[in-house]
Structures are given as structure tokens and as C-alpha cells.
Amino acid sequence: MDRSVDPEIAAHHKPGTSTTGDGAEDSAAVTGADGAAASAAASAAASAAAAIPAPAIPAPAMPAAGEARVVARFEIPYRACLDRDGRPLGPLPSFASDVELLRRMYRTMVRARTFDAKAVNLQRTGKLGTYPSCLGQEATHVGVGAAMHPEDVLFTVYREIGTKFWRGVELYSVLMYWGGDERGTIYTRNPQDFPFCVPIGSQLPQAAGAAFAMQIRAERRCTLAFVGDGGTSQGAFYEAINMAGAKALPLVCVIVNNRYAISVPVSQQTAARTLAQKAIAAGIPAVQIDGNDALIVRQVVGEALARARAGGGPTIIEALTYRLGDHTTSDDATRYRSREEVDDAWRAEPIARLRNFLTARGAWNDTEEEALKRACAEEIDAAVKQYLATPKQSTDSMFDYVLAELTPALRAQRDEARRYAQRS
Q1: Inter-residue contact 86 to 353 (CB < 8 Å)
Q2: Contact criterion met (CB below 8 Å) for 1 and 91
Q3: Other residues' Cβ atoms within 10 Å of the Cβ of residue 227
Q4: Pairing of strands 223-228, 251-257
Q5: Which of 9, 145, 313, 332 satisfies CB 3.0 to 4.6 Å to 163 for a cystine?
Q6: What is the DSSP letter of 356?
Q7: Residue 323: closest CA among 136, 119, 116, 131
Q8: Which pTM does this prediction carry?
Q9: What Å distances lie between residue 26 and 19, 23, 75, 149, 286, CA to CA?
Q10: 37 by DSSP, 3-state: which?
Q11: According to DSSP H, which parts of 125-202 are helical?
């Protein structure tokens, strides 16, 4: 079905499981140097065991000294529904017949990209703080949102505006947040969702804790946590997935592999062939998907959430995508990647892909496209006006929620902040 692989995608993304022309899969999750290391370790263990006198209780038969045996095998499957041009690679998921769902997903992706461009312009004109663009990652973000249930709990990094928009967060709130106003983290429609998390990886232990609470309360809901490729190098990532695996928590972790941790490419972050295989150490099932394919994101995340909701435990999903813009508005990506690389990534970008798919089925046309662009522009302009007209918070807000009763040092800082605000 959706496990077929577009050769172009496979070559571009180097998935963990490649597919030959006849459809046979070549598993590559734990092979090569990793396999050699495992064999050497098994040989050493066998030699050491042979030198120990047999215990009184008969032990299982051990291999002869120097003989190796395989104690476990692992595979990382790769899944996709559409090729770069939006053509199906095989039979589609059942929800693909829901035209209204697909149209809503497309509209949300366009809305996110239009908002993204406006936010970058606001930062360039001094009306917004440093901003992290989501350009090129809209399919992953919206596909995740479309798969979640309203009662689930979302933990994002700082780029996933498409997921937040799908779940009801207002444009105005996102502008407020990146304008430095913490009132932008008050989500009236989905108050259980957590705000953007800038410290890399720190949202994952929180997500595991929330999932543990759901399990203790016997609630049929899940937590979904995003993490970037760079975030999987953090200790907090491993601590969280280890707990999730050991406790079989209702947690789904989506690794957004956009190829760069700021300026550091994945190839310099890890020797692992996939990031999904990091789940193996925690005993968690994992899969790698085409993150620019909104259909496969919706399908695989939906399957993982259903499994978690039924008590089946966590899943790790690596979504292969590409950060088409700079890391943030304070970055210049031309310093560390070539124009040819970016141009090739644009040919696989997600919005054109889904638009082609819908158009080929008579579910979208140029008139609707122009109307959508106008509607997005008008909505975003209205949100910007509301944001710019909002009075700034008092400097006291920095101290109001620190302690029930401020210490003398904090009171002195609060008073100094008041004096500074009056001068400015």
C-alpha cells in the first residue's frame, strides 16, 4: 500500500529501508559497522563466559569460544503515499476519500506558509522578535494535527505553527508569543496543549510525564511530542524515550528531520543511518516516513496514536523533510549549504505536492487557490493589526508568577524594571 517508495525520494532522503525496482525491501537499520561491533561484543562475551565454571543449576547452552550468534534483529521501515509530483505510489489510506479533510489540510498548510512569510517580514521591520520559519515543513506539522484527537496533548518545539493552527491556536497568539508577550501562550481553545519550547529537547521529559499521568488515570488519550534532528542528540531525548518504553506510555514522538541543527548537518550529528533507529535502545517501535507527504504523515501518526490510546505503548516516527528557509531570522543558511541543495529540496516541497494531488482529482482549481490566498492575507493582516494595537505588558509580569512572595532581591529587580520602563 503506502509502503512503496518513490526512487527519487529514496535517493534524496536515504531512508532506513530502501526498496528495489521489484518491490523487495533491503533492511539497513543495524548493519555494517554496527553489525560488526555487535558481533565482536558477542564474541568477547562468549569467550568470557567459557572461562567461568558452570553453576550448580544447568545453564542454557552457550556458543563455543569465538562463535557469534545473533540475539536480536531490527528493521526501520520507510513509508510514503505520494511521489514528488503528488502521484500515488500505490493504494491510498481510507481517509484519502474524504475530500473535505484533504482540502482542509491543504488550506491549513497554505495558511501556515502565508503567516510564516508575514512573520519574517514583521521581524525584518522590527515589529517581531527573532522568528523561526516553518517553510517547507508544513506537511509534517499539519499531518500531525489532523491525526490527533482534540483531547490529546501537544508538545512542540518552536516551529510547528501548522499543528497549532489545526488545533485552534489563533494567529494573534503566535504573534504575541514571538513579540515577547507571554500572554500568547494562553490557548483558549486547547488549554491542555503546551506552549512553544525553545530549550532544545526539554519538552520531552514533560511529555513523558504527561503521558505517565494519563496512564495512571486510565485516560484514553495521548501525548504527542515533536523534536528536531538535533534534539535527538540531547540527553533529555533518551531519558524521555527510555521512560516511555519502560512504562509503555501513551506517547508518540515525531522527529522532524529537516537535515540541519542550525548549521550542523545530520551527517555530522550522528553515524546512525536513520534517526528512527534511536528508538531501538528504548525498546520502542519506529518508522521513517516522507515528511513532505501530508497523507503518509496523517496515516502513520494516526496509527501510532491509536496504538498508544489502546494501551500499546509509544512509537517514534522520523519525518524526513527539509528546512527551506534559514534556521531563524538571525541565521544565514547560505553560509553552510549550497544553492543546488536548496533548489533540489524545493522540487520536493509539500504544498505543491498536495495541490497537484487534489487538482488531479478535481478537488482543487486555480479559482479556489486565488480565493484562498486572498482570505489568508486578509485574516493575517487583521491579526497583525490586533497584535500591534495590543498594549504591552507591565514589567511586573516578569515577576508575578515566579514566587508567591518575592524575595528582597526580586523585589529590588522588579522596582528597577519599573524605573527603567518609566524612562523608556
Answers
A1: yes
A2: yes
A3: 28
A4: parallel
A5: 145
A6: H
A7: 136
A8: 0.84
A9: 6, 10, 9, 35, 16
A10: helix
A11: 138-147, 161-166, 171-178
Average model confidence (pLDDT) across the chain: 89
- Provide the pairing of β-strand 260-261 with 264-265: antiparallel
Residue 222 contacts residue 310 (beta carbons within 8 Å): no
pLDDT score recorded for residue 55? 44
Residues annotated catalytic, as ranges = 323, 327, 336
Quote the cell numbers at residue 283. Answer: 525498546
Question: What are the pLDDT digits (tens) for 350-408?
Answer: 999 999 999 999 999 999 999 999 999 999 999 999 999 999 999 999 999 889 999 99
Nearest to 292 by CA among 227, 353, 355, 357: 353
Cell of 227: 523534536
Residue that has been written with the C-alpha cell 488515570 in this structure: 217
Phi first, then psi, for residue 418 (nearest 5°) are: -65, -45
Give the amino acid at 119. A
Q: Residue 255, SS3? A: strand
* pLDDT digits 0-9 by tens, 82-113: 999 999 999 999 999 999 999 999 999 999 99
